[in-house]
Design a protein that fits this description.
By secondary structure, the protein is an alpha/beta fold. Helix 1 crosses helix 9 and helix 6 crosses helix 7. The longest helix is centred in the last third of the chain and has 15 residues. The protein is built from 9 helices and 8 strands. The relative contact order is 0.19. The structure holds adenosine monophosphate. Adenosine monophosphate binds next to helix 2 and helix 3.
């Protein structure tokens, strides 16, 4: 099963993709996470990529396309995958189509998580992450705060804010979503793959709607 998630930053793609990955036993490939991981080595290319990310701008297409060509051909993706954040424009979608055709792995469904801009801004700017990369817990100061201020409930490490979750970068990321990524809704709609889900609500309810849309059973109870 090959699934793609669309939706603005703050729609909860990361949270829902992680749960779906666990439930369906598929790898979750987040373009933002993969790019950030690639930055840990301080290479010249990495420094250039970080400039785009910190400014809230899209990283040039060839970097993303090469990254996903390598990832999707790996054995971990043999039974399918969940794409989160790639493609983000029509050129990337066309490259993904040719790649999936070459791999003989057609897209199964595209989930579009819908929220309005005001809520997207509120969710992005309130987001805090556990600084311990092995933990990776995600909080929101307004919607899912930690028990103790600025401390991870799971591993007690300090929480941090992503450098591109500040106001000016968030505004740029949202406007880039509207201009460059939103056309993908019609692109996948025309292919009959689109499932639209309102992401303004309880994560548990939204997850159930995603499972229903994909006709999957819930294997993970919490
Ligand atoms: P995200 O974690 O999905 O919000 O992505 C963080 C940043 O990574 C974005 O603001 C972009 O700078 C970059 N990025 C992630 N995915 C893509 C993509 N498909 N194309 C270009 N840039 C991307």
């Amino acid at each position: 099963m090959q699934i793609l998630f669309l939706g603005p930053q703050g729609a909860g793609k990361g949270t829902q993709c992680k749960r779906l990955a666990e439930n369906a036993n598929l790898p979750h490939l987040s373009s933002g996470d993969l790019l950030r991981e690639s930055l840990t080595a301080a290479t010249k290319a990495g420094i250039e990529i970080k400039k785009f990310i910190d400014a809230g701008q899209l990283v040039p297409d060839p970097t993303l396309i090469a990254m996903f060509e390598e990832k999707l051909a790996q054995s971990g993706c043999a039974n399918g995958f969940i794409l989160d954040g790639f493609p983000r424009n029509l050129a990337q979608a066309a490259s993904l189509d040719s790649l999936l055709a070459r791999l003989d792995k057609p897209m199964s469904a595209v989930i579009n998580l819908e929220i309005d801009d005001a809520l997207a801004m509120e969710r992005m700017m309130g987001r805090r992450l556990c600084s311990n990369k092995d933990c990776g817990a995600i909080y929101n100061l307004k919607f899912a705060p930690p028990t103790a201020d600025n401390i991870c409930d799971v591993c007690s490490s300090p929480l941090i804010q992503r450098s591109d979750d500040r106001q000016d970068a968030c505004e740029k990321r949202l406007s880039s979503y509207h201009e460059q990524t939103e056309p993908l809704i019609d692109y996948y709609g025309a292919k009959g793959l689109l499932k639209v889900i309102s992401a303004d609500g309880n994560p548990e309810t939204i997850f159930r709607m995603i499972l229903d849309a994909l006709k999957l059973a819930n294997h993970v109870t919490r």
